[in-house]
Specification:
The protein has twelve helices and twelve strands. It is α/β, with parallel strands linked by helices. The strands form two sheets. Strands 1-7-6-5-4-2-3 form a seven-stranded mixed beta sheet, with helices on both faces.
C-alpha cells in the first residue's frame, strides 16, 4: 500500500511539472477508472481489426522484398502491387489504388469524382454539404477547374434528425438520372452526427431498390477501423480516404486510398496517372515500408484515438460542456466535438493543445485563412507528419457555435495528459 501511495505521489509530482494540478489529476483518474468497461469494448474491436489486417498480409505473402523502392515510372513495383491487394482484402473490394502520390483525402476524393463524372452528369450528396475543402472542387466557388466548370451538376439532400431524408432521396432519384451519390460519413465542420455503418447499409439498400446503376461513393475519412465493417461490405461501390488519418497508423508520411469495383478503380488510377496507364505505373519512392507498417499498426493506433476521444468527452461532460458524441454513444469516427459557444474558449483550448504537443510546442496557434475554407481556422497539430489527424490534433472554424474538433492520439496516455493540461488553461484563463 505504501509503495502504491508513493507511486501515485511521484506521478502527481511529474504531472505538476507539466502544469497539471493535483485536483485535475485526481479528477482525471476517477474519469479513467469509470471508463474501463467502455474501453474494453473497443479493445475487442481493435483485436478483430488487427486480425483482419494480419490475415490480409499473410494471405498476400508480404515479404521484406516488398519494401524495396522504385523511381521514375515505377513499373513492376511489387511492393505497391501487394499493398493494393492487401487493402482490397481488408475492405472486401475487387480492387484498390493506394498511392503516396495522393496529397490528402481531399485529393483522393477529387480524383475519384473527376474520374467517374462526365459533362452533363449529376452528382448527388445525401449527407448534406460536404467538407469545406470540396467547395471549390464541386464549384461552390468560381474556379475554372471545378466540376461545375465542366458542366457537371450538383444536388444536395440534407440529413433530417441525423438520418437520411428517404422521401427526398426517392423523389430525386425517380425524377433525375443521377450518376454518382456521395456520402460523407464523418461530420466534417458541421454539427451533425457522423453516420454509422448500419445507416449506410440501410440507405444503400433503399437506393438500390430505386436505381441499381447509380455509383455510390463513400468518403470514409476518420472512420476506418473504428468498427468491424467497412462501406464496401454493405454495398458501396467505391470508398475513399487518407493515409495521414487512420490507416496510415501515424507512420505513413503521406498518401491516400481508393477501394471498390475494379472498373471504377481503373478509371480512378487513370485519372491519377494518365489514360492507358492506370495501376501499372507510379513509383513508390521508399514509401512501401511505412505504408505497410502503418497499416499493421493502424488498429491499435485507432483504438488509442477512440479512447482519447471517449475520455475527452466524459471529462468535458463532467465539467458541464456539451460534447458530441457523448462518452457512451456510438462511435463512428475518431472525432470529438467540444462545443464552447464562444470564440475565446475555443481559441484558448486549441492554443493549449498546441502548447503541450510533442512537436512545435513553442508555436502559438492563431486563427488564420486557409486554402479551401471560407472561415478563419484555428488549428493545433504538433505532429510528426504535417496535418496528420491520427496524431492528436484539434481545430475549428471561427464561427458559431465555436466547436473544437479534436481527433487522434497515437498514445491514449499521451492524449489524456494533454487534454488534462488543456483543461488547466480553460480553468485559469
Amino acid at each position: 500500500m505504501q509503495t502504491e501511495m508513493r507511486t501515485k505521489q511521484i506521478m502527481k509530482e511529474m504531472y505538476a511539472q507539466l502544469g497539471i494540478s493535483s485536483e485535475v489529476y485526481d479528477f482525471g483518474h476517477k474519469i479513467e477508472e469509470s471508463l474501463k468497461e467502455r474501453f474494453e469494448k473497443f479493445d475487442k474491436t481493435a483485436e478483430y481489426n488487427q486480425m483482419k489486417v494480419l490475415l490480409a498480409m499473410q494471405k498476400n505473402k508480404v515479404a521484406e522484398a516488398h519494401f524495396n523502392t522504385t523511381t521514375g515510372y515505377g513499373y513492376n513495383d511489387l511492393g505497391r502491387e501487394i499493398i493494393e491487394k492487401v487493402y482490397a482484402d481488408i475492405f472486401k473490394s475487387e480492387s484498390a489504388v493506394v498511392r503516396s502520390q495522393f496529397i490528402s483525402g481531399t485529393h483522393a476524393i477529387s480524383t475519384c469524382l473527376f474520374a467517374l463524372l462526365r459533362p452533363g452528369d449529376i452528382m448527388l450528396s445525401i449527407s448534406g454539404k460536404p467538407y469545406d475543402t470540396l467547395d471549390t472542387i464541386i464549384g461552390f466557388n468560381d474556379n475554372p477547374s471545378s466540376l461545375k466548370a465542366f458542366n457537371i451538376d450538383y444536388k444536395q439532400i440534407d440529413l433530417i434528425d441525423n438520418n437520411f431524408d428517404y422521401n427526398n432521396i426517392k423523389d430525386i432519384l425517380s425524377n433525375n438520372k443521377i450518376k454518382l451519390i456521395e456520402i460523407q460519413r464523418s461530420k466534417g465542420y458541421s454539427t451533425r452526427e457522423s453516420i454509422s455503418i448500419d445507416k449506410i447499409e440501410e440507405v444503400i439498400k433503399f437506393i438500390r431498390s430505386i436505381d441499381k446503376e447509380v455509383i455510390i461513393m463513400i468518403d470514409n475519412c476518420y472512420c476506418e477501423l473504428v468498427n468491424k465493417k467497412e462501406p464496401i461490405e454493405v454495398g458501396a461501390d467505391i470508398c475513399v480516404g487518407s493515409l495521414i488519418k487512420n490507416l496510415g497508423g501515424a507512420i505513413a508520411s503521406n498518401g491516400g486510398y481508393i477501394v471498390g469495383r475494379k472498373d471504377l478503380i481503373n478509371l480512378c488510377a487513370e485519372r491519377l496517372n494518365v489514360p492507358g496507364q492506370a495501376k501499372e505505373v507510379g513509383p513508390s519512392m521508399g514509401q512501401n515500408k511505412p505504408i505497410l507498417e502503418g497499416l499493421y499498426m493502424a488498429p491499435m493506433i485507432v483504438n488509442n484515438a477512440i479512447k482519447t476521444a471517449i475520455y475527452t468527452a466524459y471529462l468535458f461532460e463532467k465539467l458541464g460542456y456539451n460534447v458530441s458524441p457523448k462518452y457512451n454513444e456510438e462511435r463512428v469516427d475518431i472525432v470529438e466535438n467540444i462545443i464552447f459557444n464562444n470564440e475565446e474558449d475555443l481559441i484558448t483550448y486549441v492554443k493549449a493543445i498546441q502548447a503541450n504537443s510533442k512537436i512545435d510546442s513553442n508555436a502559438i496557434a492563431m486563427p488564420s485563412e486557409m486554402p479551401g475554407y471560407d472561415d478563419k481556422i484555428i488549428m493545433a497539430s504538433g505532429s510528426f507528419t504535417q496535418g496528420s489527424s491520427i496524431e492528436l490534433s484539434c481545430d475549428g472554424p471561427l464561427r458559431s457555435p465555436y466547436i473544437a474538433y479534436q481527433q487522434g492520439s497515437i498514445s491514449y496516455k499521451y492524449g489524456k495528459i494533454i487534454v488534462e493540461r488543456a483543461i488547466e488553461y480553460l480553468l485559469n484563463k
